[in-house]
Write a structure and sequence with these properties.
alpha/beta, four-stranded antiparallel β-sheet, 16 helices, 14 strands, about 20% strand, globular, binds N-(iminomethyl)-L-glutamic acid, binds zinc ion, zinc, cytoplasm, Metal_Hydrolase
Amino acid sequence: MESDGPRAGKDMQQLPMLEEAVVGIKDGKVTYIGETTEGIQADDIIDCQGKLVTPGLVDPHTHVVFGGSREHEMALKQQGVPYLEILKQGGGILSTVEQTRVASEDHLFEKASFHLDRMLSYGVTTVEAKSGYGLDVETEVKQLKVAKRLQESHAMDLVSTFLGAHAIPHEFKEDPQAFLDEMLGMLDLIKLEELAEFVDIFTETGVFTVEQSRDFLSKAKEKGFGLKIHADEIDPLGGTELAADLGAISADHLVGASDEGIKKLAQSGTIAVLLPGTTFYLGKETFARARKMIDEGVTVALATDFNPGSCPTENIQLIMTFAALRLKMTPEEIWNAMTVNASYAIGRGEQAGQLAVGRKADVVIWDAPNYFYLPYHYGVNHVNTVIKNGLIVSKRRDIVDTVSLSSKS
Ligand SMILES: N=CN[C@@H](CCC(=O)O)C(=O)O
Ligand SMILES: [Zn+2]
């Protein structure tokens, strides 16, 4: 799984793989990858005979720090009330904002920790975490501080994104610009206290316009932040083009991305982070045009978008199945999208997403006989063991003979 950079377009089909491989780990790092154990001494040996071994997965788009939950919205969804209508009525994101504002920092820490444990158990070892459920200075800082504490104490590696521009809170309903100015006013503090590396905005009907987003993100860029955009998730407004124009590191969702937008992503190198779990959960028929993106030479990554509203699942393996069946991505493209490309989408291309000598020993051993088995056998957890920085952080029941799971392996 070594790569010099993100894999774009048809290069996403490349998936270097060793059979009969040996991975050596010492002091938390990968020290050896080869096909023989000859001349190698080890204190502990894990026999992975017949099993797939990969780098830890990278989830480059999550909203993991939040208060409460939104199961009460399920009935509204069943009645056909659209996502943006629920938000307009003060529910949706704004309901989670209320629950996050009243939660203590320690509570949010414990809750996010629980979700991160679950993500680790599904084979994810690096994750991006967005704020955006505070929408006021105090609560946004509280969320970002929780992410920072988690980065310092949890086995998971976290990369933090400031999404203060996630929705317009009640108190600014009549004056969205004043709200955006308040969020912009936080950037110096966020920089000073190293609370986030990226700034994101929800560019969507009834939330922020393309022009508001351009202005907001340009100011964040001037202050030295990397940029991300929730772009063309529901209505095709042109957030994709904006992401490319501004040189954003990623443009996320992209269900309604135009032909022009897709071309621009390929030219700018902005990574398309696709979130098919969200499209599924919103009950949409039309998914992001991954095939067109790959044909045009775009770098595609995949993520869960784990959040309490539009995609409440930590199961990134389920996203593999959606990517295969609804985005028509090949298994090779899916693995690249969740490892190499995902790590570049959050500025961790040099640290995560590859199994290579000298890198962190973030390794997953799967109860699967080959890499295309995972998107196929869906809805369950195929992890056998997760190793983070050389230590076992998650171990599940062993199946001795994985080969027997498959007729062909
Ligand atoms: N679309 C905007 N933000 C999130 C959903 C947040 C929520 O519904 O709580 C997303 O990426 O899908
Ligand atoms: Zn999101």
